[in-house]
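Lecture 7 notes: from sequence to structure.

We start with a single chain of 351 residues. Read the sequence below before looking at the structure.
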Amino acid sequence: MIPAARAAAPGAGGDLPTGAGYAPCHHGEILQGVFLDGDGRRCAGLVTLPMAGPGSSAEFVRRPGTAPEALTVVPAGRTKAARAAALAVAECAERAGRPPCGGELRLSGDIPVGLGMGSSTSDVIAAVRAVADSYGMRPAPGTVARLAVRAESACDPLMLDGRPVLFAQREGRVLEVLGPALPPLVVVGCALGGGAPVDTLSLPVREPGEADADDVRACERMRTRLRRAVATGDVQLLGQVATASARRGQRVLGHPEFDALTAIARRVGAAGVQIAHSGAVAGVLFDPAVPGLRHRVRSCLRALDVHGIPATRTFTTFTTTKEFLNGPAHRGVDRPAGPDTSRRPARLPAL
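Now the structure, written as tokens:
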């Protein structure tokens, strides 16, 4: 935790200190499994696919002199973000040499809930950053990760700078920086299961120690291949790794559209597919340098429509001045003011 470059701004409630925070989302995983850390210990780990656009914003109004438990969150029901804010208050107050206090956390954002795009982690990180900002502090990524894991048991690496990393989500630490950036990709996003949210709490949780040796070896082989794909800019190799990881994830998720999705990817000459390992968001991965890219993308969109798989957003992982093919973002999505996981489908307009 380091001092911010500016002091916290006065809040709407007179001179009450107010802070703001923001965090992006991701588009599910490229790779997930059980890996070995530097000491040879088994760890659950993942590599996420970054996506610019949707995110969570937070504002925290600190109320000095109130009890720490007098902390409210709007919308109500964002329990993970509220827990993260309370943890951040305790840490920031200790560093500032002040007693912890209550306050009000307000969240807003446009990340679809329950699709595996990191909506809860985005809320949590935005909340931590807003609290720290109200104290005139800027938390280091490692601090944010530690608080996020305490708040929600596991978190995505959204507090980092977007570099491709193998991240131990249950421990909040980086197992390996795979390189400076992913190879450039064009991603045709879609939602499996009709876009219905996945209740992640209902998914079976397998401890790393329960994985057999063959599983760990398979994950380590994919890790090696992904490292090579990043180092050489090999989109085809990255697509193969993502597809293999998605296929392994089918053991838990069992999406009925998986075979159709992979068949579409092969037919249109895509590099592969990626699927969120704790949700329904998926993507067909293209090399932007492949001949006839626009025709391939349009063919992919038509095929998805024929199979009843709603397309959501076509985007790139490299800097571009406009949305690829001018596709819409995840628009018109109402984050419910209820539980952390929505009980109704997110409305994702097709391209």
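Confidence is low (pLDDT under 50) at residues 5-13, 321-351. Keep this in mind for problem set 3.
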